[in-house]
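ARCHIVE RECORD
Type: protein–small molecule complex
Small molecule: adenosine-5'-diphosphate
Source of inputs: curated submission
Record status: active
Notes field left blank by submitter.
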Amino acid sequence: MKNLMKILVLNSGSSSIKYQLFDMLEQTVLAAGSVEQIGEEGSHLSHSLNTGQPGMRKTVRALPIADHRQGFQLITSTLRETGVLADPGELSGIGHRVVHGGEKFKEPARVTPAVLAAIRGLIPLAPLHNPANLLGMEVAMENAPAVPQVAVFDTAFHQSLPPHAYRYAIPKNLYEAHQVRRFGFHGTSHRYVAKKAAEFLNKPLTSLRLISLHLGNGASAAAIRQGRCIDTSMGLTPLEGLIMGTRCGDLDPAIIFYLERETGLAPGEIETILNKESGLKGICGVNDMRGVGELAADGNPEAQLAISMYCYRIRKYIGAYHAVLGGLDGLIFTGGIGENAAFIREGCCEGLAHLGLELDKGKNLAPRQGEAALESKAGRVGILVIPTNEELEIAEQTVACLREVKG
Ligand code: ADP
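STRUCTURE (tokenized, with ligand):
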């Protein structure tokens, strides 16, 4: 079998395509970037090239990009012009991030017409994301027909949840007829950081009980036992669970009906409020944690409350997952906030010494490159920062899937 070398990873959104080109033999990123505001005023390409020197060489080009087809062609022509990919045919595979794989996809899948149809069938569960992911796959297949393509699902890692964790206590026909259950998201990231945490701790993943906190604009927690996810905070959609930049997370469902009655808002308007106007933004007016931190440091009480609520919610999940895991070997922080916001890590570990979680404040504040252990000497449980790399995980899963398919 020929070596699987160059893998292109695509993350297609409704008006953007993000990409990374990997050399899997060398385990390096050759180039990365995005086409953005596709079909809109201000469309542009950002391209970062690995020149072999420290840091990437970044260029931004403003130009009209009418649709995803043009966007994909612009990516491949830019990869050619910058000397990292002569032709799409040179790719060993293309890995696509797909948000929702429903109950059908427990593993990455080689993209075939049947797989595309199944992903299309899941659009009701992810009406914003799956259509854009599909469009990306169709355009890539059209422009690189000889290159095998693999779909890697955000939900797949959570398919190991047992029914008592994934079912909601509502009439069972709503599950059977409409798939109303917990799916969970960010699975690619949770899986990657769990694997990396085991490597970092130099212990087999199968021996560990881990809680992984992916804290970015979206945020979720996962309870991982012996490498398998047993519970996660996001639900049927990414709205459930932790407090996020603009999403409310856990909520009394009756609030929706109460708001409908009291305000006359339509269900769709309430959905928009809960997804886009809530979370940190709803509490203090700012959705970006850096901005929230600055406001709080200036004494803004709403920003201080937002941080307290954010960390309190996470502590509740740590307690719950500690219980369902039957103990804990490591707490993992990842995502833009988990990796960078020391004040949030401190707030999440506050008062949890009885669970063995004791943060070393000096280590927490120290400048950090890559992975780090932040627990104090007295701490019985590892507190780890593990930078996530969803693109690399997609590339690795793409290679694994293609090896399996080829036998
Ligand atoms: P996404 O979920 O879109 O991938 P990221 O994982 O990049 O987002 O996380 C974005 C969040 O990380 C933002 O709230 C941002 O403010 C926060 N963040 C990034 N760097 C810092 C920092 N140094 N301090 C506090 N928050 C930070």
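CURATOR ANNOTATION: The chain has two domains: 6-153, 203-390.
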